[in-house]
Amino acid sequence: MGQYIMSKKTLSNLALSISVALGTCALMAPVQAAEESEENMESITVVGRSVSYANNQTSDEMMKQQTSMTSVLAAIDNLPGVLINEGDTFGADDWSTSISIRGFQVDLSQQQIGMTVDGIANGNSNYGGGAKANRYIDTENLARVDVSQGTADIASRSHEALGGTLDFVTIMPGVNERLIVSTTFAEFDGRKFFARYETGEIAKDTFAWFSLSNQESSDWMDQTAENVRDHFAAKVISTIGDVNLTAYASYDDTHEDNYQRIYGLSQFEQNSSWDQLTSEWTGIPYQDQAYRRGWSTLRENFFTYLKADFTVGEVAFSTNVYYHNNEGRGDWVPQYVVDLVDDGEGNGHSELVSGNTVYGGGALGQITFVDRGGVSLPIGDKTSCASLTFPYGGSRNDDPSTPDVDESRNLNYDPNCFADGAIPVGSYRTTNYEKSRIGINGDFIWDARIADMDNTLRGGFWYEDYTRDENRSWQKIIDSATSYRFDETPYWVQYDREFPVETTMFYLEDQLDLGFAKAHLGIKQFFVDVSKNDRFNASNDQGVSSDSDLLFSAGFVAPLPVNGLELFAGFAQNYASIKDAVLERDDSDLSLVKPETADNFDLGLRYSSRDVSASLTYYATKFDDRINFVSNETVTGIDFLESAAGGYINDGGIESTGFEASLSYQLSENFSVYGSYTNNDSEYTDAEYLGNGVIGAAEQMGVVSIDWVRGNHSAGLSTKYVGERWINQANTAAVEAYTVSDFYFGTSIDDLGSSVESIDINFTINNLFDESYLGTIATNAAWIGAPRTVALNLKAAF
């Protein structure tokens, strides 16, 4: 892949030189004459719809700040209240991705923010079998993202929406036939090829587009990861009689090599550009458990829907059916083979012989070093053999009964503790996921009049049935001394289970125009049944009803005497069901877990005119029965067998209050500015940590962007500040504040002849000043943020 790009040092130096030059040109450019056509103008429109809750929408400028390789999640990072962190600029690692809004989180262990694609449920956002929006949409096919930071629309299809919703909207087909071809080259072996064919009218009132893309990149630390993504998508719209039809389909095949969290702040202070994963295979299984190519996420997602909009009399109807299939796996490299069968004293271990698969059962011990006959070898001289110090501070002693000289070490992992010629053995452990979802949505809107007042009654339902399958298999690494390649026939299938989940949601809302204000009142309720069927041991089967109470919402929007200014207020009871992940562990006590709930209140002002858009929102949220995962991974190592205590519990709640503000201003025909500010106070309400700040929630965030356009040329510089964030519930350590800037410059060349419509050249630098910082936060741990990344995109339309 190196043939596609220049070296990191060359690109970085070039980036700074070009950015300074282009930025200077942009700032010194003369104001265009008044007679220039307004159709060449671009404006920032981030203040949302006239509704009773805070909402914002991405702009074209926000899209330009990101490369075409970037995950669609990054587009919303500049909106008030929103914080997106990913392991690298391209978002090429779901393991390290997080979203934070008003103290609510989406990360490895929490899914508290709703996510939809064209209004359709995404099927949970968790790592283990879930799918975020970047699995459904290519960046070039994203029209916008509608963000509701708090109360959200009552019709939102998600049972994760405690803290608002993110709706990712795909572009509509164009009316004219054309072909768009794009290629992107970036640092860290980054490249992407994209093509979209827009058909024009292929039948009466029928239009479509089809797209495909392939992208690759490596990690930014040592360029050993192999991240590959293939994406195919299509969208069709048609009018048949009085019915408007929309169909969409996408297929996404992704292989990601992960970034790893670092523990505490000392590791970051020691080396701020290394996540403790290694680039070379050493042949020592204990050290190779940290080999980056063995930390992988593989996923395939196929998603499709068919939507119909029509009117019967005075009632407008909208309905759709959808299907989603997700399958893939998550990989790790345990430093041992699990001993499952008592093969007798002096006999070779049957687990080391290909084709001997054990289904279920428990571990008898661990196999680390053997002779040529596959017989475990004893530890030699224990007084001088301890030598391993990496990873996790060296091989920890998991068996206190082992009579080691240094009881903080487990010498069974150290090759120096065995005779010459000892053969190391290890495993390649995969957790294998598959999920199939099928669902249907229906909505109606009835506009009428009551006592000379406009009245709108709307309602709808959502039904979804899905089954998630999960099994875990352990494969023997064929030769641990030379590589991580493994026997594709597992020696152990640790478990195999399925999780059927059935969801039904109903809502009804009435809005009355009182003249001086529009007021609404709504009710909503979820019925969710979650089960686990253990294919090895039926005694582990369990299920739980995760129904919500009747959820109320209310609000109003009132125009004020100042033209374009309105006052809004809204209240909603939000809910998140118990996830099927809670049932994963056989020792889970479901009587201790109940659904999460949140009361959200918004009060604000919204202003809009030709050149200015602004909003100011005060919010208050009370989040109860927070479900939290107690991880089995710590600074001392990973419990690959999950034999230690760990699982999901309700550990109190969170209260958040704060202000969100945004302002966009068209300074002139050439310049516009945008700013947002968030002041958030999120605190735990449980007895142990009462009043302590919430992990990962920044108290202050601010964004300032300036964008310039002149004819076919555009440029922009955006800077985001993120304040300190706590790294533990005890609030004894905090991640430092950071400031990251993004720069872009683009130009378009038109009138190239009858065969070429235009050529666009776009240059992007993310993290312009190469800020070193910590991004996604986990308990007592964090992922390192991405460094400066330069990308060049060439796009042609035919």
Describe this structure in words.
The structure is a single chain. The protein has 4 helices and 45 strands. With 798 residues, the chain is mainly beta. The strands form 9 sheets. The chain has a 22-stranded antiparallel barrel. Strands 1-7-8-5-6 form a 5-stranded mixed beta sheet, with no helix packed on it. A 3-stranded antiparallel beta sheet has the order 2-3-4, with no helix packed on it. The model is unreliable at 1-44 and 397-408 (pLDDT under 50).
Helix-strand layout with pairing:
Layout: H1 8-28, E1 55-57, H2 60-64, E2 82-85, E3 98-101, E4 104-106, E5 114-117, E6 120-121, E7 142-148, E8 165-170, E9 177-186, E10 190-203, E11 206-217, E12 227-240, E13 243-257, E14 262-263, H3 266-270, H4 285-288, E15 296-312, E16 315-332, E17 337-339, E18 358-359, E19 365-367, E20 369-370, E21 423-424, E22 427-450, E23 453-476, E24 492-513, E25 518-534, E26 542-545, E27 551-559, E28 565-576, E29 596-608, E30 612-624, E31 627-630, E32 633-634, E33 637-638, E34 647-650, E35 654-666, E36 671-684, E37 700-710, E38 713-722, E39 725-726, E40 734-735, E41 738-750, E42 758-766, E43 774-778, E44 781-784, E45 789-797
Parallel strand pairs: 5-8, 18-24
Antiparallel strand pairs: 1-7, 2-3, 3-4, 5-6, 7-8, 9-10, 9-45, 10-11, 11-12, 12-13, 13-15, 14-44, 15-16, 16-22, 17-19, 20-21, 22-23, 23-24, 24-25, 25-26, 25-27, 27-28, 28-29, 29-30, 30-35, 31-34, 32-33, 35-36, 36-37, 37-38, 38-41, 39-40, 41-42, 42-45, 43-44
